[in-house]
Predict the 3D structure of the following.
Amino acid sequence: MQVSPSLLAANFTNLQREIDMINTSEADMLHLDVMDGVFVPNISFGFPVLNAVGRISTKPLDVHLMIVEPQKFVSQVRDCGASIMNVHQEACIHLDRTIHEIKEAGMKAAVTLNPSTPVGTLEDVIAELDMVLLMSVNPGFGGQKFIENTLTKVCRLKELISSSGSKARIEVDGGVNLSTGRMLAGAGADILVAGSFVFGSPTPHEAIRSLKAL
């Protein structure tokens, strides 16, 4: 299992220390949630923070844009050093075009689905994707309870990926801990995004290691 700790749960009064902790951990990447207060009911951080994190992180940046019109920011996300640009299916009118723009910018293309968005909405683009992120909580806030129907969605997405010949990996974000992580691993998830479970732990390195062992 791969693990992508979510910076949203970090202590922003000492961000350097938090990034140093991730750099020295077994985490596979670092998940960055950009929220605009429009697409989701919260505001997180923007490009000044992304650029600062990009300068000190040794882990690949997994940038998740929870914003309207994410296609306007492809070049800025690339310039902050992102390896993966993740956009919401619900926010992109021309999703196929946005996917190709992300790839042309040299990043891996990922698409996120909200809890109420069916997996089938990706049928016509799944072959183009490097990753699909399933939200297992309603996006906008950390620390929410895991939505168990996500397990069924992971299985459906796994079937779609297999039948299409896609190489997309399945990432899940929201309410991830050892219990839910174990269930997600059994359903076929490849990458777990974990915020509170990692940054709220007295032993974050061990928290990351325990998820990777699932």
Remarks:
- Helices lie at 15-23, 47-56, 74-79, 95-104, 150-164, 178-187, 196-199, 204-212.
- The mean pLDDT is 96.
